[in-house]
Specification:
By secondary structure, the chain is α+β, with helices and mostly antiparallel strands. The protein contains 19 helices and 14 strands. Helix 15 runs antiparallel to helix 18. The two termini are 57 Å apart.
Amino acid sequence: MILQALTKLYEDLAEQGKIAREGWNAVKISYLLEIDEDGTLLGFIPQFKEIISGKKTQSVPMEKILPAAVKRSSGIASNFLWDNSAYMLGIDGKGKPERAKECFEACKGFHRELLDGIDTAAARAILNFFDGWEPALAAEHPLIVENLNELYKGGNVTFYVNGRLAAEDAEIKAAWQKYYDSSDGERMQCLVTGKDDVIVPTHPAIKGVADAQSSGAALVSFNASAFCSYGKEQNYNAPVGKYAAFAYTSALNYLLSDKENVHRIGDTTVVCWAEGAEEQYNGLTNMWMFGDDNNTGLSDADLYAAVKRITEGKYCNELKIDPKRPYYVLGIAPNAARLSVSFFLRNEFGSFIRNVNEHYERMEIVKSKFDKFDTLPIWAMLNETVNPKSQDKKPSSVLAKSTARAIFAGTAYPAALLNGAMLRIRAERNITRGRAAIIKAYYLKNTNKGCPKEVLTVSLNEQSTNIPYTLGRLFAYYEKVQKEVNPEINATIVDKYYISAMSTPARTFKLLNGLYQSHLRKLYRLNKDRARWFDMEVGKLKDVFDETYPIKHTSQEQCSFDLGYYHQKQWFYTKKEYR
């Protein structure tokens, strides 16, 4: 299913001219090797562009559509019409002059094989160049001397004749295509297209997946006998034709090369696309699903209205988005020399947006004015489960994958998400907005009577009679009174008693009640009216449970306690007279 969807994406992109056809690739070129019809080297034309990477401006090679690269590791094999300086010029930049000479001869022979019999200016120029070029004297050529340092770095060069790339010559293009299409190999039915094709033993590498090998990794690979059967080796165990292998890898590399549309969730790299390869779908996805800035051109109010129509299954004229359009979300993670699929989801675009929108609605909770996000993006929510003192600041790989899958598919949240948030609350004695939101969202989706709907509100529910929730509110009052009389205190009751109050209230609140009375007497001496108000409010809370404290709270009841504490604290912050 994944390979079929990516192959269809390749065909859509190729139809729109956004991606090279089979046998051709976008290649990074540092210099154009300008030659005349006699094969004389006329110059090097730099092909660099300036890009901003972080705070730095870098010069990077430009991309040209050229014949596809050959597969080589330690062996010698030349590309057609382009390659590094060792192959194209015989220049040795690695202290291996004999190997550079062999590379040049291989390149010369390959071009002679494909271009003999073609009588065009570009073909004649290339053959004359190879016949007349002396690799041993290359480093002494005036034009080479000027660019030697750059050529030593290994940048690619390609032929440039009469003001255009040699790869644009119609007869040369036809010669390459004939060569590319005539490759030998075992033919059988391709599992992706269903058509008879030459089966490729290895597939092109996928580049751009975070933390994977920079040279590229395989999405489909068989390289151990344990994975093979019936005497089949390599990818003959799952036969994919040459066309499909090129198509799906080209499409995936295209997606991964567009950094604006690539996102990270834990160790997983996520790419999305709409059937038909229309860009406006990804623009809305980046903002609504991953928290990017609003660059739709609509005001926030108009955008929310547009999203509402999409979630209702109505066509959006402003963004030209059809909610019925099939949409794909693919998450891939590094796995040694391979890539592993974290999740692959297919649904109508409107369904994806609706699922994410419902997640954000469940996550909505009162926040302070210092909070950066109106709604927490998925990555920010997952970061709430990470130990801030750990060296690795990424959330658990398993947690990130299962949570993202649940949000996009609209299914129940994994228990690991709640456990991760509760673990950080216990370790840090700190209930952040994100952790409180996780508790609220988790039990709204994964219902449990221990954490009922009456406590799963956006802000304080003063009418709730849930005992754990009320005890959480009471603890917040005790903390507030303590800070009123000891504003500079280093260790508060939260630091000392929060965990025990949350889990074993009967034992802990007997002690807390005594501390509260002591703090309240001090507050009476400082501000009698304020002390009376606190005592009255505390009395109202105690009336809810008639001062009968539960011996122990279940894990669900502890979450109710946390929400009561969080809601009450935020209420203090938002009411000026009680700050």
